[in-house]
């Protein structure tokens, strides 16, 4: 996993937590809370916006928010947008062992993509309700 993908997921996790209240996230705040360099975050947010995962609002009270509910944005969609095909570079069939190795990588890719499709941004948000006790 790349640093870029990690940063994108952290920013999206913050936006997913704020989604129920329609709260906007500002770049400076996201950068500080998620320990992401602000200049790099600007680029990542631009890609996420161009990919349709987030929206931006202009103005003094502007910021960023998810374009759709967190449960409707799969981790696979995020990975594809930010990272591309994680396994493309390892599917070389050259050499005597190449076909077997490529077949194994393909199997791993299918498992990985299947699980990434099952997980959504909602999975990034911690559920605090379990830890709350009322007396």
Question: What secondary-structure arrangement, pairings included, does this model have?
Answer:
Layout: H1 3-18, H2 27-34, H3 38-50, E1 54-57, E2 63-66, H4 75-82, H5 98-118
Antiparallel strand pairs: 1-2
Features:
135 residues, mainly alpha, Arc Repressor Mutant, subunit A, two-stranded antiparallel ribbon, 5 helices, 2 strands, elongated
- Strand tally: 2
Amino-to-carboxy terminus distance: 44 Å
Q: Kindly give the count of domains.
A: 1
The structure class reads mainly alpha
Quote the average pLDDT.
Answer: 89
Q: Which spans of ≥5 residues are poorly predicted at pLDDT below 50?
A: none
Main β-sheet, spatial strand arrangement: 1-2
> Could you name the CATH class?
Mainly Alpha
Strand content: 5-15%
Mind telling me which CATH architecture this is?
Orthogonal Bundle
What is the number of helical segments per DSSP (H or I, 4+ residues)?
5
Question: What overall geometry do the principal axes of the alpha carbons give?
Answer: elongated
Portion of residues in helices? Answer: 40-55%
Output the CATH homologous superfamily. Answer: Winged helix-like DNA-binding domain superfamily/Winged helix DNA-binding domain
Gyration radius (Cα, Å) is: 18 Å
Order of helices and strands: HHHEEHH
- Looking at the structure, the CATH topology is Arc Repressor Mutant, subunit A
What's the short version?
The chain has 135 residues and is mostly helical. It is built from five helices and two strands.
């Amino acid at each position: 996993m790349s640093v870029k993908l990690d940063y994108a997921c952290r920013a999206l996790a913050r936006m997913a937590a704020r989604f129920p209240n329609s709260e906007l996230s500002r770049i400076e705040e996201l950068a500080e809370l998620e320990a992401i360099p602000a200049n790099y975050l600007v680029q990542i947010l631009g890609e996420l916006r161009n990919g349709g995962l987030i929206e931006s609002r202009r103005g003094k009270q502007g910021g960023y928010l998810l374009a759709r509910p967190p449960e409707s944005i799969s981790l696979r969609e995020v990975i594809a947008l930010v990272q591309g095909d994680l396994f493309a570079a390892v599917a070389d069939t050259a050499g005597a062992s190449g076909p077997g190795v490529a077949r194994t990588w393909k199997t791993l890719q299918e498992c990985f993509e299947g699980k990434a499709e099952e997980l959504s941004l909602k999975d990034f948000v911690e559920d605090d309700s379990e830890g709350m006790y009322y007396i």
